[in-house]
Give the backbone structure.
Amino acid sequence: MSTLRVLMVAAENDGIANCKVGGIADVIRDIPAALTKEGCCVSVVTPSYGYLHEAAGAVKMADIRFYFAGQFETATLYRVRPKSDAFNQSGHFVIDHPGFLHRNSAGQPVIYSDDPPSRPFCTDATKFARFCTAAATAVNETLCGELNILHLHDWHAAFLLILRKYSSEFAALQNLRTVYTIHNLALQGIRPVAGDLSSLRHWFPGLFPGDRIPAELLDPRWTDCINPMAIGIRLADAVHAVSPTYAEEILRPGNPPQFSGGEGLEKELQHAAGAGKLFGILNGCDYPPEHKTGKLKAGRLFELLKRETAHIAAQRGAVNLADVTALQTLEKIITAKKKPAFIATGISRAVDQKMLLLKARGTDGKTGLEKILSAIGSSGVYILIGSGDQSIEAFLAETAALNSNFIFINGYAAKAAEALYASGDLFIMPSSFEPCGIGQMLAMRAGQPCLVHRTGGLRDTVQPGITGFSFKGETLVAQVDAMQTAFSDALALRAGNPEEWNSVCTAAAAARFLWSDSAKQYIEKLYSKR
C-alpha cells in the first residue's frame, strides 16, 4: 500500500499550545504520532481563533482565497510549532481569518462561543462553515501537501463534506477517502436552512438553486434545518465512534435522562452500521516511561491543593463560595493532627453529562453526592475539581459548604489534577453517557482504581472487581442507588480485604489502552477501502 497521507480537520489540537478545551484536543494531540509510527504521514489543521498564528515559530505558508456568504474572502495558512518534540513528526497548521476571532465576556479569545438559547450554535456554525470552506480550498490547492485521506472530527468539520459532494469547485476532493469521527453525539451544530445569517443558504449562496435542499443534509426531526453531525454520518466514507460500546449504544433510541442513545440520529447510524462503515475504536492513553505513580504524602497533597485553589481564584479575579469553602476545609485538614484515611477524587467538567447522577436523588430522597458523602463519613474526604454550568457549580459549592468531607475546587489546575490522579484512593466517574473518557485511564495509569457508570468507553476500560468498580440501572433513581451500593462495596473491600484491594490497584496500574493499538485499527478499518 502507498503511504497514507492524512489531514485531520478539527476544532482543537493539544499538539500545539493553547488549542484545547476538551477531549477532541487529546485525541488530535496523540493519534497523529501513533499513526506516524505505523508509517502514515499526518497533518492537522484548526482555525487560528485570532491568536494561534501569533505563537512563536509560526510560519506563513500561503494566502487562501475562497468564496463564502456571497463574497470572496482571504484567509492565511500558517504552519505552527508543536508543544514538544513528541509531536514534531506531524504538520500542525492553523488558518487565520478575522471571522475566527470571538471573545468571551472577559474579552479573551475563545475556541467555542456561548450563544443564546434562541440561536444555538449560530456563531460557531458560521465560524466552522467558513473554516471548512477555507480548509477545502487549501486541500484543493495542495497547500497542506499531497493527501489521500481527509479525517474530519465532530460536527465542526462536517461542512467540508457538503462542499466535497455538491460544489463542482471541490470535485477533486472526491478522490480522497473521508473519515468522520464522532466524539460527542449530543452536540450536533443544528442551524436553519435559510432565513438567518447563520444558515446554509447564507453561507453557500447558489450552491443549491431553487427551493429544494438535498434530504441528506437535513435534520431528521426539523426538516427546515441542517444537521452537520448527521451530514458527517451520511456523507463520509467511514464513521468512527470513540469506543466499541458507544458505537453500539448510539444505534438505539435514547430514553433521557437514563439513556442517551443515538440522540435522534439512530436511524442514520443504523444505516451506516448496515453499510459496514461504522466502527467503534477505543481512544488510547499515553504511558510515558518516566511516569511516576507514587502518592504524595497527605500533608503535601493538601498544601498543594490549597495553593492551586488560591491560584485559580486569583486567575478568575474574584473569590466565590466554592473558593472560600475549599480553602477553609483544606486549612482545617492541613492543621488537623489526623489526616483523612480515605480520599475519593474526581476531575470533570461540571455539566449534566458528567454530574447528573450526583445531582439526582435516589429512593431515599438524597442526592447521589449526599449518598456518597454519607458513605465516606468523617474519616474520609471527596475532592472534586471542575467548572462548567453555573447551576451545577452552585450545587457543588453549596453541598461543599454543608459537608466538611467534600471539597469542590471550582476551576482547573494541571498540578492539582496530576496530584489527585496520583494520590487518590478511588476515582469517581459517574457519567450518564461517555463516548470514551480519559479521566479513568489517567487515574488507572497512576494506580488509582475507578468507580464508573457502566456505559460507553467506561465499560470498555474498567473491569468490575478486577481493575475497578462499576454500576448500572434501568432508571435514573436505580442508577443513583446502584452508585451508592458500588461505592460502599469498594469502601468495604478496602477496609476488610486490603490484599484484594491492592490487587485491584495493581491491575488498574497495569491496564494498557495504547494509541498504537488504536492507530492499527484506524489504518485497517477507517483508512483502507473495504
Q: What stands out?
A: Residues 298-510 form a domain with the Rossmann fold fold (CATH 3.40.50.2000). The longest helix spans residues 476-496. The chain has two domains: 5-284+515-527, 298-510.
